[in-house]
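Narrative summary of target 7.
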Amino acid sequence: MLSTRRLFVGIPLSLRLQKRLSSEIAHFEHLPIIPTRNGNFHITLMFLGFINEEGIPDIIEALEDAVVDIEPFEVDLSEIRAEPNAEHPTMIWFAGEASEALVGLRNAVANALAYLTPESKSFRPHVTLAKIRRGKFEALESKPEFDKTLHVIEPVDSIALFESTTVDGKRAYLPLVEFPLGT
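Modeled conformation, tokenized:
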């Protein structure tokens, strides 16, 4: 029987930014949320889903080729906000705008892995800070504001193939292989 793994491609974040995001989300921990654990913060470029083990070497090769001509750049993140909207949020994001370099990287990954998934979602660069416990949130008498300006410029010098798994009963996003940009 073939074993499968739940995979995605993303941008790993610096330890400094991860600590900062953990600190920011701590302001909301009294609310009905499920905070993203420190170490799990990333920017998703493409969700791949459940992939057979035997297909992973092809994905690795495709990603190595995809980033060869892409130079390191910076991503600009600027706002903590509720998504999809403030009235009925399901997540808290740290979001930014998609720069030309970031869109180019995302497109290179999508083109390299188009044989796996015809992902048609629009790309909205963000870091998920927490998921909202919808029923409990809706029951709150007074709805909190999540919006906050927080301007951060994060260097992007690699991407990673991550596995979404469970470790000690908790969700973990483990980088399987990291791919330096422009090499």
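Residues 81 and 147 are 4 Å apart (CA to CA).
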